[in-house]
């Protein structure tokens, strides 16, 4: 499994497609699953990673309303896509609307997934988060530092 890293700025074409960043192509060339992400971005998983994630999702207690609500939104927006020979992948219209995507996109590596953001939304989010990131004084992720 690859670790997705970095920030890229592809453009959305008139058919709702983007060209996958070169560094992500090997891992994503056989297929991707896109779905709604938090903060109104799109999560993009390799098919293999999504299958691993789905195995974890299936373990969520069906008795939990919060789990059921989350799964419904997460999975109902999911779409399986295969990149074409030019490494373009179509972003379904419902996901483009959810994320407010226009022509200018920001694609970031987020470890086990890729995220697609409207460039303006990403710039706003990053500006809001950088200060709190720089000023973090407590352990956010247990055992990291």
Give the SSE order as H and E letters. EEHEEHHEEHEEH
How many E strands? 8
Look at the structure and give the mean pLDDT: 91
CA-based gyration radius: 16 Å
Q: How many domains would you count in the coordinates?
A: 1
Please, how many helices? 5
CATH architecture classification name: 3-Layer(aba) Sandwich
Question: Structural class, from helix and strand content?
Answer: alpha+beta
Principal-axis shape: globular
What does this structure look like?
- The strands form 2 sheets. This protein has a 6-stranded antiparallel β-sheet with strand order 1-7-8-4-3-5. It has a two-stranded antiparallel sheet with strand order 2-6.
- It is of the alpha+beta class and 145 residues long.
- 34% of the residues lie in helices and 21% in strands.
- The protein has one domain (7-134): Transcriptional regulator MraZ domain (Chemotaxis protein chec), CATH 3.40.1550.20.
List the helices and strands and how they pair.
Elements: E1 7-8, E2 17-19, H1 25-28, E3 32-36, E4 42-46, H2 47-57, H3 65-76, E5 79-81, E6 88-90, H4 93-99, E7 105-109, E8 114-118, H5 119-134
């Amino acid at each position: 499994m690859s670790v997705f890293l970095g920030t890229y700025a592809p453009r959305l074409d008139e058919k709702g497609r983007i060209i996958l960043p070169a560094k992500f192509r090997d891992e994503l060339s056989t297929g991707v699953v896109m779905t709604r992400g938090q903060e109104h971005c799109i999560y993009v998983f390799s098919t293999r990673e999504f299958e691993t994630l789905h195995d974890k999702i299936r373990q969520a207690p069906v008795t939990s309303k919060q789990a059921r609500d989350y799964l419904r939104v997460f999975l109902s927006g999911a779409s399986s896509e295969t990149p074409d020979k030019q490494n373009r992948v179509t972003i379904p219209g419902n996901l483009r609307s959810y994320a407010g995507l226009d022509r200018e996109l920001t694609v970031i590596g987020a470890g086990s997934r890729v995220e697609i953001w409207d460039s303006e939304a990403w710039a706003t989010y990053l500006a809001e988060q950088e200060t709190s990131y720089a000023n973090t004084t407590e352990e956010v992720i247990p055992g990291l530092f």
